[in-house]
Amino acid sequence: MTGGNRGIGRAIAEAFAAEGDQVAVTYRSGEPPSAFLAVQCDVTDAEQVDRAFAEIEEKHGPVEVLVANAGITRDTLVLRMSDDDWDAVLDTNLTGSFRVAKRAARGMLRLRRGRIIFISSVVGLLGSAGQVNYAASKAGLVGMSRSLARELGSRSITANVVAPGFVETEMTEVLPEEKKAEYLGQIPLGRYATTVEVASTVTWLASPGAAYVTGAVIPVDGGLGMGH
Questions:
Q1: Given phi > 0 = left and psi -120 to 50 = alpha, else beta, which region is 86?
Q2: Which of 46, 52, 83, 119 has the most crowded Cβ, counting Cβ within 10 A?
Q3: CATH of 7-220, one of 3.40.50.720, 1.10.3720.10, 3.40.50.300, 1.10.443.10
């Protein structure tokens, strides 16, 4: 799993570990999580992606489940958004996900089984002012996943998307109270998701019970984006 050292990614890694799976996580910066095989990797660098997979395969064997979670934001209004703001977000969130999916698919095709799960966002379907780059990158994951579902399905490889809404993380903790109230007012369930709720959806998609689910977009957003 990419981006596994904090927030949603860390919760997903912990959920798989709790089920007895061997878990490897990549991280770009910060402290590596000691509970898992942690490999430093910048998903914008194809050589680093290949090296990370080689190390994981050597220590854990072939990757059977890929969770593409690594992502960044560079929010600003479109007229202020620089080409660099656009390129950085698309290269990490969308192209980075392509790089790891392509590398994982190589081993999955040999195994004739596998699960690819992309972590998108309600923003990718609903849109968000000031997040043209982020929304485009997260929407792109849907088209990529559905194309992979069609391309790889004959080898028993599924590809799906989980689209969280607002989640209780360090990022939402620092929001001003009036902004939190505004967001909560738009969510039918009236609260943020927990990282555990997102993680449980991801582990279900990797379970035997989801073997016939592919090309799906599963929202975990409290009803915020329904109809999209």
A1: alpha
A2: 119
A3: 3.40.50.720
